[in-house]
UniProtKB/TrEMBL annotation, chain A:
PANTHER family the UniProt entry points to: PCI DOMAIN-CONTAINING PROTEIN 2, UNCHARACTERIZED PROTEASOME COMPONENT REGION PCI-CONTAINING
One GO molecular-function entry: double-stranded DNA binding
A Pfam family recorded for this sequence: PCI
GO cellular component: transcription export complex 2
Gene3D superfamilies attached to this UniProt entry: Winged helix-like DNA-binding domain superfamily/Winged helix DNA-binding domain
InterPro entries linked: Csn12-like, PCI_dom, WH-like_DNA-bd_sf
Tree of life domain: Eukaryota
Biological source species: Senna tora
Protein name: Enhanced ethylene response protein 5
From TrEMBL, chain B:
Stretches with biased composition (Basic and acidic residues): 419-430, 439-465, 525-539
Organism: Senna tora
Entry's Gene Ontology cellular component terms: nucleus
Protein name: SAC3 family protein A isoform X1
UniProt region (Disordered), positions on chain: 230-256, 286-317, 389-560
Sequence ranges assigned to domain PCI in this UniProt record: 678-862
């Protein structure tokens, strides 16, 4: 950093203050939001931070001038936050920024129109990102990371400011999505419920009215929540909406959506094409899809084992594990088809021994009781139509559509 | 003898006129109150305002107030002596009579001693009116035994006795008055005794008392407990009071004043203690000294007492002065007041109070000495453990020794290690008392006065009691663990007795005590104060006029002080919370707060702590180890073990012991809870274990990881949690037998594979079975549902029994035929209970008719369901809980 003269520092600070004042008075949101975007690391803000470090009495500058002192509540903490941010004191930076943001939303509340919405977005985003980084800093020093949690409650406050009848309400979904991000990160997804409820039931909100990007994000997160709840039809609907409306060029986002949509689709009996998995680098699913196609239980188990960590982390492990029954179904179906080729008249009777043998061939060492149990479950869950005759140890398949397709319905639970 | 006589008279009064008392109270001097004044005494309703008067000399000026004040004094005297008694007194016989005379009185006095007053009233009423059963007396006696030995009290009482009649004259007069004025008494038939009593209070002699009291009150309020000042005030006040109200008494008063002060000081100190912890807290400073003195005095032969009265005040003065200088009213941080109040609120009787005060004095002086008086955050300052009075008496001056003894109390060396449970009776006073028969007699007369009343005719009984009392004292004087137990027993009996009492006030008392929670036993001064405040509410309304009259006095004493104290008392907790909030948690010196236990008993019942732990009841690590072993080897039922383990856990927690022993204890408890099916308790242990393991303390980590998994799978049914705990498993964990088993169980459950589930059920390592036990019913039901749906036409029950884990052996095993038959039967019963229909085939084997059953299956209500939802709380088990 080159040496900065006092005058230069003074000039930069007043420049910032002027920009802020002009932006507010002319309602120039583009200019305004750039003033808060700490994480953009714009040279303007960084040099301002240097200037602030050099010129210690910036607060006096604010308080001396009538037009600046009007916004002192916002500006003073922003300066402090900037200083700390530049120096790497992220916890301090966060705290100051939250203070400033608090003052900002007070101001924002008083503005009738929603002109500053985007600036608010920036602030909300900065709050979240700063909190995450501050938590990292806290964790590294052995303190309990609680800033993100604090950010969560602050954003709830912002949500409250936006959730009204006026034009500002379209901003609510953005805040909601930021809240989702926080809650998912913290693992407190149950907190999402209250926001979701107000978004989906409050009359002031018309979902289609929200910005598209927010809608996609919202659908992505709520879809994920449905995956956790194993409510596959709803998850499918939400994630499909997200996929459909997602910007086709943001592949990372599409991939994120697909990561959850594919297991959901699989569990309702819809298999993706291989090229989809390849295009979006979701090859961890390819073996699973393959296993479903072939009725290869071993492949499924291996695939699950291979990517266990990944699936557990994303939370789809249990969903994928439940595909096992479909694999069994496919296996029985194959046996049935083979039997039908040999002896169509007796094809609907599948002996338990045969199934055990087939499984053994797949290196699945299961005894009669176990396989019998699985057959019973398959029938019970309506993956196989028919009945099991215990005495003769035979699965008697229905002559009509013995292996009903799921066709978008989840397996009966 | 004066006292005993006095009381005897008292007792007799109801029966006959006061003729007898007159003899006793010849001193009663001519100065006599106008009838009107007496009437006032009789009707205390108006006196509500007086309560305030107590604090204010001005009150005395008003005639009504005067009487009240007298009354108050009396009560105080009473309390002074018998305070403990009152507290322990069950209040069972709170009769309407009393309300007439006393309740009003209570309200009036309430300002000052509402609680005591009430108690006192209760105390009396029962005896008078209904001649309450002897049990009452006994209970009282026992309780009194505990607390009576207090040196100060004894000295106080003794002194009066020993002293020449002159000094007493004032006190006794009232009685004499009553006696002399028979006209009044007739009206007061039922509570004639009381009247007399009150009158006695109302008398000029009492003014003097009042005076004494006033100063004290003022002092407390001002946070000055200087006795000299007190004396001054006495004089001044007495003059005032006498002038305004009882010119005649005035003359009398001066004389007694001189002698009385010492006595009064003592008494007053004592008196106040019970009433208002806040005020008492102030006394702390002064009192300890008196106590010491008294104890020393008590050590001396009886005559010493006589002499004591006068010299003492002088002795005290300097010390008190010092204290005063330290505790100038304005100089005290409010938080300190709150602290003092808090500390005193724990005290249950005079003794404790006094001791407590002594300790606090040291704390405060120490604090001033090292300049932390203002810097220290009193709001979060831990209360010192309830000190043992013995220790205080012996060591009150030896802070240094205490320090060495109790190094953990870095901040305030004066903190004592003894518990609130510790018996307060002290060896010293007791010793003094016991040998001295006359003392004991007097004591007994004091204590028994209520009984005596009942037993006016039965002098023998009195004697008996006296002897009992004496023996009791002796017993208490001997240091033994028994004593400790006894104390606890006595304490335990108190609440129950209270429970018996059906009067609203009692209930209320109990409730408030319950809610005031943290610090209070039912009888605690805290609670008393609450009552006081409560009754003050009414006073506020009624006593406006008086107030306004007395306003010029009040600001210093009652007005500001009272209000403040009241509010403060109410806010103590919340305040400490608020202010605590400002103070970062990490700023608290936890090490300084950590207790190091000294209790050597292996067995200990769990009692949820409501105050700072007391080292005397906390077991050190070695003992806890033994205790754990004891529990592990115990043959008793789970409830007993649970109780013991909880107490062990508590002791570990308060001592902040976190090591392998801790882990062992929690593991043991978790296992026992699992075996018993006590999931809530298990969950507590599990969550503790999680953090303990996370701290790197060794234990059966894997075993409990498995339990945790099973718990999540089988009982919380939360997919997200499950995924989380699965993803947290380490690689080694996944290789562990128990964890593998748990994971397999999970797979079986999620896929609904009942065959695998019951196989795993039988092969479960550790206590995994126990957790699975809780899921077996559900799994079976699901399985039968599935079977009914998928099998046609029938399924042999034997197969179901085998697959669903009813039989313990494989069906192919020939030797297990008997077991098979049993398990078959069990399975049939189970199926029937769940609505399945079974048929017999040609061979007589039972078959499940799947089609018929598929629509009729249902989940029966659990047989062991209980209305309160916790089957573990079966009455028999509850009753079987081993009493300690």
């Amino acid at each position: 950093m080159a040496y900065m003269s006092m005058g230069e520092a003074h000039r930069r600070i007043t420049d910032y203050l002027n920009r802020f004042y002009d932006a507010v008075s002319s309602q120039d949101v583009a200019s305004l939001k750039s003033l808060f975007s700490l994480s953009s690391n714009s040279p303007f803000l960084l040099s301002l931070a240097d200037a602030l470090n050099l010129f210690q009495d910036a607060n006096r500058l604010i308080k001396q001038s009538d037009k600046y002192s009007l916004y002192a509540e916002i500006l003073v903490p922003v300066f402090r936050s900037l200083q700390n941010y530049k120096q790497g004191n992220l916890v301090e930076a966060y705290q100051a920024f939250e203070k400033s943001a608090n003052a900002f939303i007070q101001e924002f509340r008083n503005w009738e129109s929603a002109w500053a919405l985007e600036a608010l977005y920036v602030i909300v985003y900065e709050i979240r990102v700063l909190a995450e980084r501050a938590d990292k800093e806290l964790a590294s020093t052995g303190k309990s990371p609680e800033k993100l949690k604090g950010a969560g409650s602050f954003l709830m406050k912002v949500f409250g400011v936006l959730a009204g009848k006026g034009p500002k309400r379209v901003g609510a979904l953005y805040v909601t999505c930021q809240l989702f991000k926080i809650y998912f990160k913290l693992g407190t997804v149950h907190l999402c419920r209250s926001v979701i409820r107000s978004i989906e039931t409050a009359r002031i909100f018309d979902f289609e009215e929200f910005p598209k990007s927010d809608k996609v994000t919202y659908m992505y997160y709520t879809g994920r929540l449905e995956v956790f709840n194993e409510n596959f039809p709803a998850a499918d609907q939400k994630l499909s909406y997200a996929l459909k409306h997602c910007n086709p060029h943001s592949e990372a986002n599409i991939r994120m959506i697909l990561k959850y949509l594919i297991p959901v689709k699989l569990s309702i009996g819809i298999l993706p094409r291989d090229c989809l998995l390849e295009n979006y680098n979701l090859l961890e699913y390819s073996n699973i899809v393959q296993a479903l196609r072939r009725g290869d239980l071993r492949l499924l188990r291996r695939a699950l084992q291979d990517h266990e960590d990944r699936f557990l982390r994303s939370g789809v492990y249990l969903v994928l594990e439940k595909l096992e029954l479909q694999v069994y179904q496919r296996l029985i179906k194959k046996i049935y088809i083979i039997q039908k080729q040999r002896d169509p008249s007796r094809a609907h009777q599948v002996k338990l021994e045969v199934i055990v043998k087939a499984l053994k061939w797949l290196e699945m060492d299961m005894d009669l009781d176990e396989v019998e149990c699985i057959m019973a479950i398959l029938i019970y869950k309506n993956l196989v139509k028919g009945y099991f005759a215990h005495k003769s140890k035979v699965v008697v398949l229905s002559k009509q559509d013995p292996f009903p397709k799921l066709n978008g319905r989840p397996v009966n639970s | 003898m004066g006292y005993s006589g006095y009381y005897n008279n008292y007792q007799q009064q109801p029966n006959h006129a006061y003729s007898q008392p007159v003899g006793a109270y010849q001193n009663t001097g001519a100065p006599y109150q106008p009838l009107s004044s007496f009437q006032n005494t009789g009707s205390y309703a108006g006196s509500a305002s007086y309560s305030s008067t107590y604090y204010n000399p001005a009150d005395y000026q008003t005639p009504g107030g005067y009487q009240n004040s007298g009354y108050g004094n009396q009560t105080t005297m009473w309390n002074n002596g018998n305070y403990s008694n009152y507290s322990s007194h069950p209040y069972t016989n709170y009769t309407p009579d009393s309300t007439g005379a006393y309740s009003s009185g209570t309200s009036t006095t309430s300002m000052q001693y509402p609680q005591q007053y009430k108690q006192w009233a209760d105390y009396y009423n029962p005896t008078e009116v209904s001649c309450a059963p002897g049990t009452e007396n006994i209970s009282v006696a026992s309780s009194s035994t505990i607390s009576c030995p207090i040196p100060a009290v004894t000295s106080g009482y003794v002194t009066p006795n020993s002293q020449p009649p002159q000094s007493y004259a004032p006190y006794w007069r009232p009685e004499s008055n009553s006696s002399s004025i028979p006209s009044l008494q007739p009206g007061a038939v039922t509570y004639g005794a009381h009247d007399g009593y009150w009158k006695h209070g109302a008398q000029s002699s009492q003014i003097h008392q009042n005076n004494t009291i006033q100063p004290n009150y003022q002092n407390p309020l001002d946070l000055k407990s200087s006795y000299d000042k007190f004396q001054d005030q006495q004089k001044t006040v007495s003059s005032q009071g006498t002038d305004l109200q009882f010119p005649s008494p005035q003359q009398v008063a001066p004389a007694p004043i001189q002698t009385a002060p010492s006595l009064d000081t003592r008494r007053v100190g004592k008196l106040q203690i019970p009433t208002n912890p806040r005020i008492a807290s102030n006394l702390t400073l002064g009192l300890p000294k008196t106590e010491k003195d008294s104890s020393t005095n008590s050590a001396a032969p009886k005559p010493a007492y006589i002499s004591v009265s006068l010299p003492k005040p002088t002795e005290k003065v300097p010390s008190n002065d010092a204290v005063n200088s330290i505790l100038k009213p304005g100089m005290f941080p409010k938080s300190l007041r709150a602290y003092v109040e808090r500390a005193l609120a724990r005290c249950k009787d005079d003794k404790q109070m006094a001791v407590c005060q002594a300790v606090m004095k040291e704390v405060i002086t120490n604090a001033t000495a090292d300049g932390t008086l203002y810097t220290r955050n009193w709001e979060i300052e831990p209360l010192f453990p309830m000190p043992d009075a013995d220790m205080v008496n012996k060591d009150s001056s030896e802070c240094s020794t205490n320090d060495s003894v109790l190094p953990k109390y870095k901040r305030s060396p004066s903190r004592r290690s003894k518990s609130r449970w510790e018996p307060l009776p002290e060896e010293k006073p007791a010793d003094n008392l016991v040998p001295n028969s006359s003392h004991t007699e007097k004591h007994s007369s004091w204590i028994h006065n209520d009984r005596d009343r009942k037993e006016t005719k039965e002098g023998k009984e009195d004697g008996l009691r006296n002897t009992k009392w004496a023996t009791f004292l002796q017993r208490t004087s001997s240091k033994t663990p028994q004593r400790y137990k006894k104390q606890r027993l006595a304490e335990a009996s108190i609440p129950s007795e209270n429970g018996d009492a059906s009067s609203d006030s009692d209930k209320e008392q109990g409730l408030t005590a319950y809610y005031s929670g943290a610090m209070a036993f039912t009888d605690s001064p805290e609670e008393r104060k609450r009552r006081e405040n409560r009754s003050k509410r009414f006073d506020l309304g009624q006593g406006q006029g008086h107030r306004s009259e007395n306003s010029h006095f009040r600001p210093k004493n009652a007005g500001a002080g009272n209000l403040y104290s009241r509010r403060a008392s109410a806010l103590v907790l919340s305040k400490s919370f608020e202010d605590g909030g400002n103070k970062a948690v990490e700023d608290i010196d936890w090490d300084a707060l950590t207790v190091k236990g000294t209790c050597q008993e292996i067995e200990k019942r769990y009692l949820r702590l409501t105050s700072a732990p007391d080292p005397a009841t906390v077991r050190p690590e070695e003992v806890l180890e033994k205790a754990l072993l004891m529990v592990q080897n115990s043959q008793k039922n789970y409830l007993y073990k649970c109780d013991q383990l909880k107490s062990i856990r508590q002791d570990l927690t308060v001592q902040r012991i976190r090591n392998q022993l801790t882990v062992k204890v929690y593991e043991t408890h978790a296992r026992l809870a699992l075996e018993f099916g006590d999931l809530p308790e298990y969950n507590q242990c599990q969550s503790q274990l999680k953090t303990l393991y996370a701290e790197g303390i060794e234990g059966s980590h894997m075993e409990f990881a498995a339990y945790n998994l099973l718990c999540v799978i089988l009982h919380s049914n939360n997919n997200r949690d499950l995924v989380l705990s699965m993803s947290r498993l380490s690689v080694e964990a996944k290789d562990d037998e128990a964890v593998k088993h748990a994971l397999a169980v999970r797979a079986a459950v999620t896929s609904g594979n009942y065959v695998t589930f019951f196989r795993l059920y039988k092969a479960a390592p550790n206590l995994n079975t126990c957790l699975m036990d809780l899921y077996v019913e559900k799994m079976r039901y699901k399985a039968v549902n599935c079977i009914c749906r998928s099998y046609r036409p029938t399924v042999p029950v034997s197969y179901i029994a085998q697959v669903l884990g009813f039989s313990t052996y494989m069906a192919t095993n020939g030797e297990s035929n008997v077991r098979d038959a049993e398990s078959l039967e069990e399975c049939v019963e189970w199926l029937k209970a769940h609505g399945a229909s079974t048929i017999a085939d040609n061979n007589g084997d039972m078959l499940l008719d799947t089609k018929a059953s598929s629509s009729t299956l249902f989940m029966p209500d659990p047989e062991d369901a209980v209305a309160h939802g916790d089957a573990n709380l079966a009455v028999n088990d509850f009753l079987a809980r081993a009493p300690l």
